[in-house]
Amino acid sequence: MLAKVYVTLKPGVLDPQGKAVRSSLASLGFLGVEDVRLGKYVELRLAETDPGRARAEVERMCERLLANTVIESYRVEVS
Amino acid sequence: MLAKVYVTLKPGVLDPQGKAVRSSLASLGFLGVEDVRLGKYVELRLAETDPGRARAEVERMCERLLANTVIESYRVEVS
């Protein structure tokens, strides 16, 4: 199965990298950008064939390694 | 408007960071992971209110800054 994981900073957590991207965009002439937030996107190909078990396994991977759950949240899609 | 951008490595481009994540997952006991590919996820809040113009502007941002189109592809969602 293919699992897609989206890791984003929780609301309220400062995102200096996003601010840097916003300011780079402004210096390129893109002045209509009010805010930029950066996150991670992870694709995993799994041997598991049961969608429910695959999702549960990927959620454990997020908790252990892929996301820092103090400051980040994650969303898992399995297909 | 809110734009979501997914930047991924093109097929065939080596992903050493993904390989490192896969091996870290294996060392944590997640042995059923066949492949990992890492990408970027960018959320942009735009002043633009027309969906078509917003998408076109974000695609220009991808070409200029957000993606390295030699090795990466991108997908834009506007809502």
Kindly describe this structure:
With 79 residues, the first copy, chain A, is α+β, with helices and mostly antiparallel strands. Chain A has a single domain, classed as Mth169, Chain: A. Helices cover 35% and strands 37% of the residues of chain A. Chain A has 2 helices and 3 strands, in the order E-H-E-H-E. Chain A has helices at 16-27, 51-66; strands spanning 2-9, 33-46, 72-78. Chain A has a 3-stranded antiparallel β-sheet with strand order 2-1-3. The longest helix of chain A is centred in the last third of the chain and has 16 residues, at 51-66. The mean pLDDT of chain A is 97. The A-B interface holds A 6-8, 21, 24-25, 28, 30, 32-48, 57, 60-61, 64-66 and B 6-8, 21, 24-25, 28, 30, 32-48, 57, 60-61, 64-66. Strand 2 of chain A pairs antiparallel with strand 2 of chain B.
Summed up, what is this model?
The structure is a homodimer of 79-residue chains. Chain A is α+β, with helices and mostly antiparallel strands and 79 residues long.
Please supply descriptive tags for the structure shown above:
homodimer, 79 residues, alpha+beta, Mth169, Chain: A, 3-stranded antiparallel sheet
Proportion in β-strands of chain A: 35-45%
Helix content of chain A: 25-40%
Provide the residue-averaged pLDDT of chain A. Answer: 97
Q: What's the architecture of chain A in CATH terms? A: 2-Layer Sandwich
Task: Quote the CATH topology of chain A.
Answer: Mth169, Chain: A
Rounded to an integer, what's the Rg of chain A over CA atoms? 16 Å
Q: Total strand count of chain A, please?
A: 3
Q: Stretches of chain A where pLDDT falls below 50 for ≥5 residues?
A: none
- Please give the CATH class of chain A: Alpha Beta
Oligomer: homodimer
Largest sheet of chain A: 3 strands, antiparallel
SSE order of chain A: EHEHE
